[in-house]
Design brief:
This protein is mainly alpha-helical. About 45% of the residues lie in helices and about 0% in strands. The chain has a domain of about 30 residues.
């Protein structure tokens, strides 16, 4: 083994997953909404938090805007 390695020359490529890193946050979500995603998780076999993330990512990708009306 070498005493020293030049790490920069070993893998000069940028990490392709660095933009997809997740960040842990705290968010308040209605119980009924969580139950909805948990039911979807049972049906699909995908963890409910992953389903929520996929749904929100789809909203971002498709530039969805909220339509809110107060009654």
């Amino acid at each position: 083994m070498r005493e020293e390695y030049d790490i920069k020359s070993l893998n000069p490529r940028k990490n392709p997953y660095s933009e997809k890193l997740k960040k842990q946050i705290t968010i308040n979500i209605d119980s009924s909404t969580i139950e909805f995603f948990k039911k979807q998780a049972e049906d699909t076999g995908i963890p409910y938090q992953t389903l929520i993330n996929l749904y929100l990512s789809d909203c971002v990708k498709n530039n969805r805007k909220l339509s809110i009306s107060w009654s």
